[in-house]
Amino acid sequence: MSASEAGRIDPQALDGAVEWFLRLTAGAVSQADRDAWQAWRQADPEHERAWLRTEALTRRFEALPKGMLPVLGRPRSSARRAALGKLLVLIGAGGAIGYVQVDEAWRGWVAQYRTPVGARREVLLADHSRIVLNAATAMDVLFDAQQRLIALHGGEILIETSPDPQQLARPFIVRTREGSITALGTRFVVRRDDGISAVQVLEGAVRVALPGAPADAARIVPAGMGLRFTGGHIDSAEALAGDPSAWQRGMLQVDGMPLNEFLRELQRYRTGWIDCAPEVAHLPISGAFPLGESDRVLATVADTLQLGLRYRTRYWVSLVPRGETIL
């Protein structure tokens, strides 16, 4: 196990820790609340790890210089949480705030809009643009006089932009840590996972730019094309395979995707853990699969590839060569 894997904490445990943090710091807390919190911490070692990580991240925020943002000095409240979210948007947007050593996990935890594993959500913005959040996604919205900004901290969103109702039209920008995507009358999908951002354009076009890069280095991506960008580099654009927005209709559509990658995609919509034996990880998967029926999908895939399902626990399922099945 690598150092990064050893330090990784289950996202659901982190979500639970943050929910407890917000609950315990929102105001009056009863002894029953405290007892329930302690019981949650003791129920699973991963819960305790998640709580300790949350405490450490909180201390980082408490180290912010006093007076940087007045509401941060107030008691814990919804207004204070919203201020933290806006602060992180500004940091991610390259604003004037100088405190940038903030753990990235906080960006998602205090985000204005979040979805858990297996859930989707639609948001109608003030300019009548529409955004659909895929599972396990976090984003913030910051509209001001100069721009319409979406800060995507992690996950995947489908955007349908509308003309700006303001007299002086403001650009519509989706920003990730890796760069920015400016809409040019567009319907498109943006995804960010593991330090890699990707855009897939369904209608219109977008302009992709890297932080600090000259304007002439930006890349125009037309409809029917997509590309990835990360680490100061923009990959070449490629034609879209299938419908990248099928997930908004509750379907996972793939074409020749290796089994291990397919299971990582399905994991976004299923509680627990799914994996496969190394010797079958390369097997290709094609088709359209209902996201709300992951057990049926796993059974179908196992049958199609002539594999077995090993249920290690109720929440941990592995696809293995047939003959190794343990129920």
Features:
single chain; globular; alpha+beta; 327 residues; 19 strands; three-stranded mixed sheet
Give your account of this protein's structure.
Helix content is 28%, strand content 33%. The protein has 327 residues and is of the alpha+beta class. Helix 2 packs across helix 4. Residues 1-6, 63-76 and 85-103 have low confidence and may be disordered. Strand 4 and strand 5 form a beta hairpin. The protein is globular. It has 8 helices and 19 strands. The chain starts with a helix and ends in a 6-residue tail after the last strand. Strands 1, 2, 3, 4, 5, 6, 7, 8, 9, 10, 11, 12, 13 and 14 form a 14-stranded mixed sheet that branches. A 3-stranded mixed sheet has the order 16-19-18, with helices on one face. Strands 15-17 form a two-stranded antiparallel sheet.
